[in-house]
Amino acid sequence: MDEPVHFPSDELPREKHFRPRGRIAPSRVLPMLYAFTALLFIWSGITYMALEWYVALFVGVGVMGFETYAWMHLRARKITALVAQNDRASLLLNQNKISEAMDLLNNSSMHAREFPEIHVMLVYNLSVGMLRRGEVDRAISLAAAVYNSGWMQVKTSVYYPHYPSLLTHLARCLAAKGDLDKAEFWQGLAHEHAPPERRAQLVLSDVYIGVRRGRFAAVVRDATECWLDAEGTLSGLQLKQLRVLCAFALEQINADGQHRENIRELLSGSRPLQRECLDSLLVNWPELQQFVEKRLFTLPPLEFGPSQTLLPAGRE
Question: Which whole-number Å values give the CA distances from 100 to 16, 80, 92, 107, 307, in the listed order?
Fold first, then answer.
């Protein structure tokens, strides 16, 4: 399957701080420039063998060495701070604190363009947050900017393990927009690049696209076969979304009621679940919206009474 070289510029975000720079960035060129200048000084001193050249060599190399050390030290500190902010934003996204995470990612991205190796992850997480809020077009443009940067495509890069996640995220975004042909193309690329032990990470997008295609029975069968792997791989929120999608698929083939109990168990297992946790699934999908309003959010609330404590006796 041939991969596109890049997305056209009109599909990228207008803001420069949301466009990660490519792998050949100034921050990677400057150290090489310093090294070339130092070698030039050394060659000149050896060639002319003059005292003034030795003095210039000593002073020049010393100054450049100090500047390089100071620049690299400051750069490392800034990258460390940005990595910490990205990790905190990822945690907030997993906790469904979308607004707080988005504020942090927006602010960090504005100051991270000079550090493309972490900027690319900030913009990627920003795209994930946009999809969580149901802003599909914005999520696609941010993910396209990450793809165009080229940081995740190189197999020797530390970011290559994240490449299947980027591809399946693009597939989810396009499916939410209703472009299922493109969604299946990107999901196919995700399967090509995902190692066998990480294929379970793709099951949510597989199910999402399959249900929107109307392949209800096949979706339920495939999800059942890889359910244990998915439980050990997906986050708690993703598993709840997977349960809702499988329940919806069973509802479509439940003409004689034989799946009624399975549907009830899937929906019960998806709780507690806030309504906004499903925004990325419900966008542009009125049938699923009607299903969750009718079948999920009408269930009685979960309650833990004195006899239903979460901890065993003596552990409160």
Answer: 22, 20, 7, 11, 36
Which residue reads 């399959």 in tokens? 210
The answer to whether position 277 is within a domain reads no
Which among 145, 124, 127 has a CA at the least distance from the CA of 136? 127
C-alpha separations of 275 from 71, 122, 133, 137, 156 in Å: 47, 26, 11, 21, 41
| Measured CA distances, 150 to 3, 7, 80, 137, 154 (Å) | 12, 11, 22, 21, 7
Cα separation of 83 and 118, whole Å? Answer: 7
Examine residue 292 and state whether it is found in any structural domain, yes or no. Answer: no
Tracing tokens 């130092």 back to the chain, one arrives at 38
How many domains does the chain contain in total? 1
Write out the two tokens for 194: 């995902």
CA atoms within 13 Å, Cβ hemisphere of 125: 29
Please determine, for residue 314, whether its predicted confidence score (pLDDT) is greater than 60: no
d(CA 77, CA 22): 22
Residue 38 lies in a domain: yes
pLDDT tens per residue across span 90-128: 999 988 889 999 999 999 998 888 888 889 999 999 999
- The boundaries of the domain holding residue 91 are 1-151
How far is Cα 151 from Cα 45, in angstroms, rounded to an integer? 40
User: What tokens were used for 284?
Assistant: 């542009």
- Could you tell me the two tokens for 94? 């997993």
The pTM score is 0.80
Contact predicate 92/101, CB 8 Å: yes
CA-based torsion, 204, 205, 210, 212: positive or negative: positive
Residue labelled with tokens 């907030």: 92
Q: Residues with Cβ < 8 Å from 205, sequence gap 6 or more?
A: 168, 169, 171, 172, 175, 187, 190
